[in-house]
């Protein structure tokens, strides 16, 4: 929760953070959020596994892990 005077600035700041993430991960997260609403915990976890597991073999994960190891910000723009 942010004061009204700071809200616009914070929204822009958060939006910039989100746009620096790999698109495939964002789309997967959106899918899981939308589909998970009416699922049991067990089915929700199964859905997450089904949707997110394939992402582990993507360039985005390789870049993220590489950036972490090299102590730098990931560059997802080239993916």
Automatic annotation (TrEMBL):
SUPFAM superfamilies (UniProt xref): ClpP/crotonase
Pfam family, one: ECH_1
InterPro entries in the cross-refs: ClpP/crotonase-like_dom_sf (IPR029045), Enoyl-CoA_hydra/iso (IPR001753), Enoyl-CoA_hydra_C (IPR014748)
Protein name: Enoyl-CoA hydratase
Organism: Nymphaea colorata
Species classification: Eukaryota, Viridiplantae, Streptophyta, Embryophyta, Tracheophyta
